[in-house]
Every structure is written in C-alpha cells, then in structure tokens.
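Exercise 4. Each item below gives a protein and its sequence. For each, produce the structure-token representation.

Item: Pilus assembly protein CpaB (Nitrosomonas communis).
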Amino acid sequence: MRNARGIGMIIVSLLLGVAAMIVAGRWINQQVNIDASRIVVAAQDINVGTRLTPDLLTTIDWPSGSIPAGSFHDIKLLDSRVNKVNLHRGEPLLDAKLAPEGTAGGLSGVIADGKRAITVRVNDVVGVAGFALPGNLVDILVNIKEDNNKNPISKIVLEQILVLAVAQDLGRDETKPKVVNAVTLEVTPDEAEKLDLARSVGTLSLVLRNQIDNSYGATNGVRTNDLLGRKIVTAEAKTETKIVYKSTGTPKPSVEIIRGLQKTNAQH
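Answer:
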C-alpha cells in the first residue's frame, strides 16, 4: 500500500514537471516569435567623418515596436554617406548621425550648417598640454603686446569654441594627451574674422572648459599693472607746477612758472 502511494507521488511529480516544461516552451516560443525587422548597424567602431562602405555595416534583428526613428533597413542606401559622429559597433545608423547626401568625407562632412573651420598653430603648452581633443570646448585667449612690450594685455576673445580636429585627427574618443602643432576649430564667420585678427596681432592660447558649462565670462582683460597690483601713473599726474622767483636787478623782478616741461615768464 505504501509502495503504491509512493509510486503515485512520483507519477504526479513527473506530470507536473512535464506540464511546466510545456508552459515554459510555449512562453519561449512566444518571445522568439515577437515581430522583428532588420536594421543597419555599425559592424565595427567607425570614426567621425568616415565615408561609409558596405564592409563597415551589417544588419541585425530589432523589435519592430522599438525601431529608432531615422534608421535604415538597406545597407545600399548608406553607400558613400559620411557620419557626423563616432559610431560604436552594433550602434544603429540614423539619418541624424549622417551628413547630407553628396557630402565629401573628412573634415568638411562634420562642419555644422552656418559654421566654418579654421586652423590655428599651437604648441604643447598653448594647446592645453595636448588635452584639447576633438569634441572639446575651449575659450580663445589672446596676448597682445603694446608700447614696445611695456604694457601687454591678455583677454579672452572667443568662448565655447568646438575643437574639430587636432593635427589631422578627427577621432573624438581618445583621452590620451597628444602633442600637436595645429588645432582646427569650428566657428561662425564673425568668430573666424575675430580669430584671424587676434592671431595676427598677438599670441593665441586655448583655455579648456567644462563640457557642460554653458556660462559666458565677460572680462575686461588683464594688464601687467593689474597682475602686479601697481597703480598706473599718468603723465598728467606727474606734472608739477613750480614758481621760481628771479631777480633781474630791476625794480620789477620776473617770475618763472614751470608746469611739467613748459615754462612761462611773468612780471611781478
């Protein structure tokens, strides 16, 4: 009797196990059969400004209900397009990440509408010791020497300027400092004129800024006297008036009045 009861419990356990397997199998089949579509993604990491070719792209299944806006289903539609941002392996290709059709590859493909690219010469110090990388924002500082280097001035002339490239490198994922001799900046036409004038009359420096800091810091610039805490003494402040009495041997002595470098005579 006890054996029959034990056998019955084993049979019931087996039936419950089979039922659980059937339910789990149906659930898995439902998940697999979710509607999916093929979309184009990057087959490898792709640097900004690259002209796309089929070997750089692939297609994968993507849930139909969450396909990103502007995605592509056919690799052929992306042939010779240029990406405006870095793409990581497996990242969907979106129209917003691409330059307009017909855009040439390289730097010209990543310049924003209404902007211009201008290159300025730097050294390892002027270039923020190599930490000004593509994608960073910088301020432009100019140092101008006046009056035979007696009264120089330093002032920030442009703010929140995007670094497009360092030397000939457009890559924006590097964090290692690079010593370069030229930096390409994205500016408006007005900013390009100011920058060109600034580099012709003084020495330029790049001031690296926080990427999320959108504040502007208007300054009056600083001169040597401001830096050292000196007071500026003007020529007018140095002018003194002196009255010198001279005896001419006549009943009416003359008076010589000295103001700075000017002298006048008066009869007393």
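Check: The chain is about 20% helix and 30% strand.
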